Amino acid sequence: YTPHLSTAVWMGNPDEQVEMRGVNRPEIGVGSVTGGSLPARIWGAFNLEYHEDLPVVGFDAPGPTRSGRRLRTDSEEKKYIELINSPCGDRGSELDTDE
Hints:
Elements (H helix, E strand, L loop, with lengths): L37 H14 L27 E3 L11 E3 L4
Antiparallel strand pairs: 1-2
C-alpha cells in the first residue's frame, strides 16, 4: 500500500476450488501460481501505472499510543519487557502477573 492507494490481488474461482499448478504458459512465464508469481506481477503492473503521475509522498506520522490492558498469566515468574529507544518515549512496559 501507499499513501495514495491500498491494493490487493485475488485470483481464483468463486464457485469452486481450482489448483493453479501446471500453468506453464510462456507468455506469462510461471509454472504454478503463488502469491509471489502472477498475482505479484499483476499488483506491480497495476500500481506502477496508477502511481505514474502522482507525487511521491511519505506516510503521516502515527498518532500517540494509548494505554493497553494489563495481561494476566498463570506464570509465577514476573516478566518485564524493557523498551530501549522506544518511539513512545522513555516509559518502559511491564507484563504484570500479580494482579
